[in-house]
Amino acid sequence: MIRITIVEDDPVTLGRIEHSLVGLEDMTVVGTAANVAQSHPLIAAGGYDVLLCDLGLPDGSGIDVIRASSTVNPEADIIVITVFAEQAKVLNSIKAGARGYLLKDENLDGCSERIREVRAGGSPISPIIARQLLRQLAPATASDGPEVALTPRETEVLNMLARGFSYGEIADMLHLSAQTIATHVKNLYRKLEVRSRSEAVFEASSRGIISLY
Question: Does the domain made of 2-137 have the CATH classification 3.40.50.2300?
């Protein structure tokens, strides 16, 4: 039986993860925490095989939770599940001890397979993140790919997506139709060669097109 502890402040995401694990014969959730402080006693108590951890917690960074778990329970595997896809956060999480890194806007119904994969010695990582890691590890002479030319409006929409606004909210703020916003998003996804909001934000921030700070 694979015992799982989850550190996640968003109740919707937590519910999605727990729902995906209900009824499975080979795994069970043994503890949940909504912030760094609540994670401390869970980590100290141990008794888990896999830690699923968000990075953006209300009272600190999930990287501190990962680091603590790696120190106290080095035998436990850690998978990051987060909206953050910035290259620095990815690398810092891996350095802290994470063995997998998944984005929240992916299908969390497959979370159980990712857990089995990491327990089998694998490292489940979202494709867009794997591509960026390979790019960083490539020889210095290698090209990072052609320059991506977004229009000013596409860049504006992308910045608003990165801040968490919905298509409807962006349309209202820019005084455009939701269909027009959807077209801009489709075009910038195509130019960035991505398929989701998190991938677009990660790719654009990695290329310096937008700043998340």
Answer: yes
Question: Helix 152-162 and helix 197-206: axis angle, to 10°?
Answer: 110
**Considering only the top CATH level, what class is 152-206?**
mainly alpha
Alpha-carbon span 116 to 98, nearest angstrom:
15
CA distance 197 to 213: 18
- Give pairs for 135-144: CB < 8 Å, separation 24+: 135/206, 136/87, 136/91, 144/207
Evaluated on CA atoms 147, 148, 149, 152, the torsion sign reads negative
Q: Look up residue 164 and give its DSSP letter.
A: T
Q: Can you tell me the distance from the alpha carbon of 206 to that of 8, in angstroms, rounded to the nearest whole number?
A: 25
Cα separation, 108 vs 5, in Å, equals 16
> What is the pTM assigned to this prediction?
0.68
Average pLDDT of the residues in 154-164: 88
For the chain, residues classed under CATH 3.40.50.2300 are: 2-137
Is 72's pLDDT higher than 90? yes
The closest alpha carbon to 118, from 103, 99, 102, belongs to 99
pLDDT of residue 118: 92
pLDDT value of position 135: 62
Rounded mean pLDDT, 47-52: 97
